[in-house]
Amino acid sequence: MKMNMTINQLPTLTWNFLKLNSVNIDEEVALNNRGNLNVEDIPAGMTVERDGKLLANVKTGMGPALDEMMDERNVETLVVRSRAGAIIEKPLILRYSLGEGDGTLRRQEIIAEEGSELTVIMDYSAGRHESGFFGIQTKLYAKAGAVIHIVKTNLLGDKYLHFDAIGAEAEDDGVIDVTQLELGGGRNYVGLEADLRGRKSSYNGNVGYLQRKGQLLDMNYYIRHLGRKSNCELNVKGALDDDAVKNFRGTIDLVHGAKGAVGHELEDTLLLSKNVHNNTLPIILCDEDDVEGTHGASIGRLSEDVLFYMRSRGISEKAAEVLMTKAKLNSVQRLINDEGTVGRIQKYIEEAFGER
Amino acid sequence: MAGKRSQVKDIDRSIYDFRYKEDGFYKVDEGLTEDIVKQISKEKHDPEWMTEFRLRSLEIYNELKVPDWGPDISGLNMNDIVTYVRPNTNMKAKWEDVPDDIKNTFDRLGIPEAERTSLAGVGAQYDSELVYHNVKDEVLKQGVVYTDMESALRDHEDLVRTHFMKLVPPSDHKFAALHGAVWSGGSFVYVPAGVKVEIPLQSYFRLNAPGAGQFEHTLIIVEEGADLHFIEGCSAPKYNVANLHAGCVELYVGKNARLRYSTIENWSKNMYNLNTKRAICEEGASMEWVSGSFGSHVSYLYPTTILKGDNSHMQFNGITFAGKGQNLDTGAKVIQIGKNTSTVIDTKSISKDGGVSTYRSSVTVNKEAKNAKASVSCASLMLDDISRSDTVPAMDIKTDDCDIGHEAKIGRISDEAIFYLMSRGISESEAKAMIVSGFADPVAKELPLEYAVEMNNLINLEMEGAIG
Prior knowledge:
The complex is a heterodimer. Chain A has helices spanning 64-72, 304-311, 317-333, 339-354; strands at 2-7, 23-28, 36-39, 46-50, 77-82, 92-97, 102-112, 117-125, 131-142, 147-155, 159-170, 175-182, 187-196, 202-211, 216-225, 231-240, 245-254, 262-271, 277-286, 292-300. By secondary structure, chain A is mainly beta. Chain A has a nine-stranded mixed β-sheet, with helices on one face. In chain A, strands 4-5-7-9-11-13-15-17-19 form a nine-stranded mixed β-sheet, covered by helices on one side. Chain B has one domain. The interface between A and B is large, with 42 and 38 residues. β20 of chain A pairs antiparallel with β26 (402-411) of chain B.
């Protein structure tokens, strides 16, 4: 399949020399849909059905090109839905297993009915050094008072091209909670748009990443505050090693009328090699006065103070770097309520540092 | 109690909104053609290389596109702009020799008084040409050259040719190319090695003619160990047609030298301010920008610093006030190349009465930089719910050997801060005015006293009523 499309476009353009306004993808991938999806036990109060496409109007942060590509190929939609009022503690686990040369497109919609709460864990994995293409689209809709917890773990092979397009909307008091760990894949493009339409609706995003040899992580987050007293907390943290490249675009859009809205974003990047390349672009768009928008970013290697503290306790610089990277990832990992998934993440991280 | 500070009014422009006719002035036709560029070059007695440079810039201008980002500039039509207006006088060294209407203009702006009281030298540009230039004898005796660009091109041609549009090449962007084609006026400053100019030099740019463009070029070379504070002021009366300012500032800061460049920009609200400023710092050099942007209909302004030398430093303090009908896109850029370079950017913006303010910046740390540090802080204050404020800061980091910090905040005056002050016996209206005043203070305190007062006058904190 020939892909020629623009993805991860910023909601407002800036200098072209930064090369962050959008990403152009122009390449050939083999689509064979060999990737396997294993749906583990479906918790009580939740249904999983194939083909619904109920959330066609929900936009993702990756842009319409991926929607069009999936529509053209009639990619099946998996619809996960919670019953109104059901508080479902047990997570639904969707394990996507891919192999060498697989080319797979998937899409899923998760709808939380009024007053319900559900958790879906999506785990994408392949052999450590395998190549292939995996494009996934996830659309979320939290009805009034509903809570959606989503966990996404990328443990794909380090030669994989990976698209992860996420779109979300929340009604009054609806909560969208997305936890992501970006560890695998070769070239990873992640685009998330969350429209906080309802009063007191909220988005909580926690992203942890470790990118190493030849890896690229390109992120585009766009949180739109439309509802009064809507709230956003976006925390992105991780480490870059070897010749890894990371682009982070994070936009908080405080739309006119969203009185009392609060949007915070924070990025913390640890740089572990002189050959890494980090781009950070945290944007706040503000068309309303009765709001609060903040962003903060911290980028660099371990400070001399931290290193001195570590050395005084017999910890070498290299060991300190591993320790601090794990600490960043752990702070995201601890949000995942599934021992099996956490174990797979830990194993992946240990192996990654074993290669260092 | 009389005079409680409690209302932030729009900027009082009455002292700038006066105009005189251009009787007897020389003008080129409206628009931008090769013939017009040749005509300007001929009128200015350019050397051949400069004529060729202008024509090459025009070719580049015609090839480049207008920016696809930033505020809308579709209201600017180059076919309507007069690119060269020469007043009916040559440059004078005494105020009394300047024609009355031009002299009155600068008198009302307070320039001669400032020269007497607090400046080492003054250049005053009216439309496309300098009409007055003077520098104190003691500064001249130090070997400092402060003159208009045309004289510099004649008397220091090699120096100008080596530096002119080398930092900002015409290929940089469309309006840099435009500047290269039609530039006129501006100041040239050369500070020899080791010379410290104790009091500031100032150039003031006044655009009087309706539908005209001003394209002054400022070239400053501060040699090793030297020190200079240069102040730039600009204003224009308001017309119903678009005016254009596409100036260019190039600053060369030598080894262990220091340059402070302060700007109070108060163009009228029909002005498109598409200005380019860039500095390069050698080893141990320090570049300090102080920037107050209050005027213009549309602004694109991002002073850029290249920290080429080891241990070089830049500091940028800026404030932008966007009122009714204004879309001001301002900020700063820095490129850190040398070892142990450092950057501090601290900006404030205020949006009111439907004004749009955008903070845009980039911090680039190159691969060869070692132990680079950068701290960026931007704060925006919304004074009503019909205005807009955006921040678009980028950090492009190509090495691990750095420490980069960024923070930004947008919002209105916090209820907690007002409550805190009121709990100490201050009225609500006074508390709000104190907070706004304090918000602008970090920039105001970087200016010489006279200019801080001017800035405060511009912000015009009125005494009665309520904010927002």
